[in-house]
Write a structure and sequence with these properties.
This protein is mainly alpha-helical. The chain has one domain. Helices cover 62% and strands 0% of the residues. The chain has 23 helices and no strands. The chain starts with a helix and ends in a 50-residue tail after the last helix. The model is unreliable at 1-16, 43-48 and 479-502 (pLDDT under 50).
Length: 502
């Protein structure tokens, strides 16, 4: 009986698709693996090892997050409290300790319900992020000096955000089942380590990554619920419903899209409804602030404003930014319907969020976190990812050096406005470069690294391998169908996905 069980198990493993090993298909990954002994051989047996890709990548993500905490040490030890300029020269600024007192958490005020002193009036964050901030405040000791409490508040938030970072890495690792090691791109992303504790964006990013995982598993309702929660933490996740609508249109998957949309609306209303009903002024502050906020750091609008004798008004910038975003949405829709092969969901999710970032009137350095998991799923190639990350690190340093320059008085320590404009340009060009590569992959599917491995759309869920029912342009003559992936034959002794080698 033991022999029979073993034989059945062995025969079952033959039909498991072979995991993709980046060190065997990516020259940069192969070269980097030499630091840890080089790529594993084809007959390496890791199936029974505790060190599965998910566990390895989660631990690496936590390790990189911890390095990011160490990078903030100069500020934790005093720069947040005693030196406005030094928190910029050390590039360790964070909103978290400053808003502990500045948004009433130190005084026990209830977000959205209790009015703040000063011009801000109410907390200017979405409801789920406000709940996250308030939860951290409950866990922060209320005794000691305000500096001591702010240090604790930052540390409590850091612990909660570390969980979010691990969730993101695990979700990306599991979304493309045959490509688990792509999750290392998320775990090792320099921008994640540097910006993770600037603000609370990782909460929305983690919920969005979990939503993408649910969609890839064919669970549209769970996807919608998680995306609705993500939108209750930050506005950008709702953008994913746009390209998904056009993809489902092309594939005729209306029922799945309806479930996703319904789940998103209900989840968003459950979180926002009570606050909207009983504290409308506080609830609406986030949306009013987003509309009324002027041109700010990181955007090409700032370059135009600082080089113009008559800068555009906020209302005019809002109008033009909205028009540019609508044009980008139309371009993405046309790309979906006219591409020679239906694009992958992750590709379009990356493009639509990148378009929002590029056209928006502000780009805070932590916004890069929105794109990291989407970029990995859209274009899992180490060279392109690292080129983009290098540009984002350059911008990360540029904004702090610019702020150091503006706050150092006559000393002028840091980067003047012209230098900061170049840093903005580097960020814009890096993001545009990655967008261009993704668009090229869509127009030339044979260049797409995911499809080169034999998959169709592993993040697409019900779209994966589906036939097209509505296509425009040359692709409609005749209408092309998505290829149904049949996994390559796994040779005897190969490992399954959970034990895939790097």
């Amino acid at each position: 009986m033991c022999g029979m069980a073993t034989g059945e198990s062995t025969r079952a493993s033959v039909h498991e698709p072979e995991p993709v090993r980046p060190t065997h298909e990516d020259r940069v990954a192969a070269a980097g693996s030499e630091l840890i002994g080089g790529p594993l051989g084809r007959h390496a047996l890791l199936g029974a090892s505790w060190w599965t890709p998910v566990r390895v990548i989660a631990l690496v993500a936590i390790g990189m997050f911890a390095l990011g905490l160490v990078q903030k040490a100069p500020c934790y030890n005093g720069a947040w409290f005693f030196g406005a300029s030094s928190q910029y020269t050390h590039a360790c600024y964070s909103d978290i300790p400053h808003l502990y007192q500045g948004r009433g958490f130190a005084d026990g005020l209830v977000p959205y319900f209790d009015r703040l002193s000063g011009d801000m009036e109410y907390l200017e964050y979405p409801v789920l992020t406000g709940l996250f901030m308030e939860t951290a405040a409950w866990l922060t000791p209320g005794s000691g000096t305000i500096q001591y409490q702010e240090q604790w508040y930052w540390m409590v938030n850091a612990g909660m955000l570390m969980v979010c970072a691990a969730v993101i890495a695990v979700c990306v690792t599991r979304t493309h089942a045959r490509r688990p090691w792509d999750g290392l791109l998320v775990a090792l992303a320099p921008a994640l380590a540097l910006t993770a504790t600037i603000n609370w964006d990782l909460l929305a990013v983690a919920l969005t990554a979990a939503a993408m995982l649910m969609w890839s598993r064919g669970r549209p309702l769970a996807f919608g619920v998680l995306l609705g929660l993500a939108t209750a933490a930050k506005l950008y996740p709702v953008l994913l419903l746009g390209p998904l609508l056009v993809l489902c249109w092309r594939a005729g998957r209306w029922r799945a899209y309806g479930k996703a949309l319904a789940g998103a609306i209900v989840a968003w209303l459950v979180v926002n409804g009570p606050v909207m009903l009983f504290a409308f002024d506080g609830w609406s502050k986030f949306y009013r602030f987003s509309q009324e906020r002027g041109v700010d750091f990181g955007s090409f609008w700032l370059i135009l404003a600082q080089n113009s004798d008559d800068p555009l008004s906020t209302d005019t910038v809002n109008m033009f930014a909205t028009l540019l975003m609508l044009l980008c949405c139309a371009g993405v829709a046309a790309l979906v319907l006219m591409a020679p092969r239906r694009p992958r969901f992750a590709q379009l999710a990356f493009l639509i969020v990148a378009a929002f970032i590029l056209t928006n009137k502000v780009y805070s350095p932590q916004y890069v976190l929105w794109l990291v998991p989407l970029a990995v799923l859209a274009r899992p190639r180490w060279r392109d990812f690292l080129v983009w990350q290098a540009c984002e690190v350059a911008y990360f340093l540029g904004i702090w050096m610019y702020l150091a320059y503006t706050t150092s008085g006559d000393a002028h320590k840091g980067l003047p406005a012209d230098g900061y404009h170049w840093a903005i340009a580097v960020h814009l060009l890096g993001t545009l470069y990655l967008c261009a590569v993704v668009v090229r992959d869509i127009l030339m599917p044979e260049r797409d690294p995911v499809r080169q491995s034999g998959d169709d759309d592993p993040s697409g869920g019900v779209l994966d391998g589906a036939d097209d029912v509505f296509v425009l342009g040359p692709a409609a003559r005749p209408a092309r169908h998505a290829a149904h992936f049949e996994g390559p034959r796994v040779e005897w002794g190969r490992t399954g996905v959970t034990g895939g080698s790097l």
